[in-house]
Amino acid sequence: MTERNFDEALSGLESGAEAGEASGAPRGEPADASTHPSVAALRSRFRDVILHHTIVAGDEHVVYVAPEQVREVLQRLRDDEAQRYDMLIDLTAVDYGGGRPLEVVYQLWSNTHKRQLRVKATLPLVALEIDSVVEVWRSADWLEREVWDLFGIHFRGHPDLRRIMMPDNYAEGHPLRKDFPLRGRFTRAEQTRRSLSMAVEDFYTPDELAVTGGVPAGTGRGAAGQDAAAATQDTTGVPDRPNDPEWAPGASGSAAGGAPGPGGAKS
Amino acid sequence: MVTRTPELGEDGRPVRVPVLPPGMEPELEGEHMLINIGPQHPATHGVLRLVLELDGETVIKCTPHIGYLHSSFEKLGEYREWNQIIPLTDRMDYLAPLIYNCAYAMSVEKLMGIEVTERCKVVRVICMELDRIFSHLLWIGTTAIDIGAFTVFLWTFQERERIYNLHEALTGARITTSATRIGGMMADLPPGWVEALRHFVDTLPKTLDEVETLLTHNNLWIGRNRDVGVISADDAKDYGLTGPNLRASGVPYDVRKDRPYYDYETYDFDVVVGEHGDCYDRYLVRMEEMRQSLRILDQAIERLPGGPINVDDPRVILPGKTDVMSDMESMIHHFKLVMNGVKAPVGESWFSVESSKGELGMYVVSDGGSKPVRWRVRGPSFINLSALPKMVEGHLLSDVITINASLDIVLGEIDR
Hints:
- The complex is a heterodimer.
- Chain A folds into two domains: 131 residues, Beta Polymerase, domain 2, CATH 3.30.460; 82 residues, no CATH class.
- Helix content of chain A is 25%, strand content 17%.
- In chain A, the strands form two sheets. Chain A has a five-stranded mixed beta sheet with strand order 1-2-5-4-3.
- Chain B is an alpha+beta fold.
- Chain B has two domains: 59 residues, no CATH class; 342 residues, Cytochrome-c3 Hydrogenase, chain B.
- Chain B contains 17 helices and ten strands.
- In chain B, the strands form four sheets. In chain B, strands 3-4-5 form a three-stranded antiparallel beta sheet. In chain B, strands 8-9-10 form a three-stranded antiparallel beta sheet.
- Classes of the chains: A alpha/beta, B alpha+beta.
- At the A-B interface, α1, α2, β3, α5 and α7 of A face α1, α8, β8, β9 and β10 of B.
C-alpha cells in the first residue's frame, strides 16, 4: 500500500487523474422533481427527454437531457415565462477518460426568478455532435468554440466554429481530452519548427483575407513577399505549408516529396 | 466638413459623426481596410489581437483573436493535487489574485463539505474586497492613460503599491499570492496587518475623490466615454456579460447579493447599477464599487473574530509541527497528506463568486482521487470580451480602444 502510494506520488506528474468511479453516464441519487420548480415543469412537458435529475454538492440541481433535444429544452427554459433562464453562465464539457462518453454542461441562471440550473447531455465518443445554442444565447458563441477547440465536440449550426485558444491550423488534436498527452503529440522540436514556419495568412481568417483581396502587401509568402520568403526558407524537403491541418503527422507522400514526420525537424 | 469632435445634439448628448461623410470621396466608397491591433500593443491590455475591418475610420467588423497567452491551466490542473492547483489560479487574473485563490478553495470545500472557520470567512472577505479595489484601481489608471489622462495612472498606482505591500505582508508575494489552502489560509494575518489595512481604508477615499475631480466632469473624458460602446440590458444578458459591465447596463445582478456566500447578506453595501450601458456608466459603476468595497472592508475589520484560521480537520489541514514530532496520530496524518494529498469525494460542484470583473465560476469534478477529473474556470473576462465585436461596430477606430478598456479584461484569464 505504502509502496504504491510512493510510486503514485513520484509518477504524479505523468499519470494524471485515475479513472476511479466517476463515469460519463447519468449518476447520483435520483432527486424529487418537486424540489426545483423548473425540473417539475420540464418533467411535465418533456417526459422522456429528461433522463435523470439529481442534486450534487448539497444544493446544485443537475438535469440530464437527451442530446438530440437539448436545444429544444434550453430554448423552452429561456422563453417560458415561469422559467426565464435569461443567462447562459457557462457552457463546458467533461471528459472522464477511459472511452467513456463526454458530458456537455450548461450552467443557467434566471435573473427573474433568481434560480440556477445545470443541464447536461452525454455524448458517446463516436458521435461528438450536438446542436448549437448560439441562437438561444449569444454567450454560447465563444464558449462553444472553446469546447470545440479543446474537446472536439462539433456544434451543429454554429455560425463560426473555429478554434479559439489554439491556432486555426493546430494539428495535434483537442488538448483537454484525456487521451491527449500533457506536452502535446509532437516533439518540442517539431512544435517549434511549425510555429516558426507559419505564414502571414495563417494568422487571418479567410473572411479577413477577402477584405484585402489577398495577403497584406509586403508581408509573408503572398505575391509580394514570394521572393523574400524563398530566399530565407530552406525549401528542401519542407512542404510548402507545414501548418496545413490536412498535412497529417508522419505522412510521407506529400507533394513536396518526403515531408518529415513529427520529430524529424530540419535545423 | 471633416469633423471628429462629437457635436452636441438637441438633447445635449454628443452626436457621433463619421469622419468621411457619404459622397465626400466617391472613389473611396465601399473600399474597406483591414487593420491589425496587437498582440503586442500597449492599449490592448495584454496580448489581445483585434483584426478590424474599417470603412474610413468607422469599424465595420471586429474579430478578436485570442490564445496568445494560452497556458492550458485547466489541463495542468488535472495533473496536480487539489492544493497544488492554487498557484495556477492566481496566475490567471494577476490583477485580483486573492479572489481567484478564494474562489477555487471555496469550490473544493463545497465539494468536500467543509465549512471554514468564522475567522477564515471574514479574512477571505477582506482579501476579496481588497483585491476588487486592487483591480479597479489598475483599471481606472490604465483606461485613463489609454484615453490620454496620465496623472490618474500615477495616483492609482501609488495606491496599488500600498495593496502590494499588504499582499506581501500577508502572503510573502506581491502578485502570485497563493494565499488560500483547502480548509483555510496559508497563514493567519501577521501582526500589525489589520492596522495597516485600516490605515489604507481610511486614506484611499482621498485619492478616489481626487481621481473623480479630474475625470467625472471633465469635458474630454465625457466626450470620449459617454454614448460610446452602448449595450442594452437585454443584449448584455444575452451576451452573458457579468460584473460592472452588466450592472452599467442596468441589470442589478451581483452574486454577492443574489447567491450570498460568506455572510455577504449581513454586510451593509449597495449594488451599484448604471443606466445607459456606455463606457461612462461603466466608469461610474467601478468608481462607486470601490467605495462600496471600502464599506465592506470597514465592517469586516470591525467584526474580525478571533479563533483558529484553519478548520480542525486532519483530512485537509496539516497538523502543527510540534504535534507531528510528538504524536503518532498527527504524524500519520501529516504523512498521508504530504504523500497522497487532499482527497475529494466523487462528485462535482460549481461555486461562483463576484470577482472584480464579473461572475467567476469554479467547476470541479472529482472521481474520488487526489486530483480533479476536470477543473473548469468560468472566466468573466472571456465572456465579457466576446461582446466586444457587438459593442464596437459602427464606432470610430479610436473608440475601439476606449470600449476595449472599459470592459476591464485580463488576458491571463481569457486565454487561461
